[in-house]
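Pipeline run #58 for the internal structure catalog. This entry was flagged by the ingest filter as a single-chain record with no existing model, so it goes straight to prediction. Upstream metadata was stripped on purpose; only the residue string is passed forward. Reviewer on rotation: M.T. Logging verbosity set to normal.
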Amino acid sequence: NKPAPPVIPLLERSMTMDGRDDEWFDISPLAPPGVSRPLTDRPPPQLRLGANDAYLYLFLKAVDHAVVYRDRMDLSVTRNDHLRLVLVDADGVLKPYIIATREPGNVVAHVVSVTGRSLRREPEIAGIWVDTVEGYNIELRILRQLFRNQVGIDVVDVDNPQTRETASTAGGGLASAAEVPAIRLPSPRLD
């Protein structure tokens, strides 16, 4: 028996995209995503979601003592710490994105192929990556029209800037639409 999908709180305001958690204090973290490769000595990432009529807002807090950013000379978006965001659209099609950056600041979502190749940028997903004492925070604004009610994440950790191999992944793998968790979004308000 699958547990009921979490109900995402309706936000009375748009969130300020600043990567700080001060606006998120009254929203409970969702249960930590499953772990598909072992985390080392750190707690799992914290994920919070909220929505208004137009957007889903995502706040991720990751503990990572060795943040590895994208190499300026490398086109890859996966040989570094990154967030894999997976949406399922209204037709049931899996829509994978990678959120990665070369330095803290504004981030873009890269539409990726099944093999992980970056195809283009998705302008309807915007966000920010902020370094913290314990690791980093990512805050995203996702247009609700991009998906129906399934949202999944994998938090991918790379610790060695020379080998750039994945050290651990927190998440469910999310290789098919059936593996992407469902959420219950608030209904749009009627004016």
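catalog note: The CA atoms of residues 10 and 51 lie 5 Å apart.
catalog note: The first strand starts at residue 35 and ends at 37.
status: ready for reviewer M.T.
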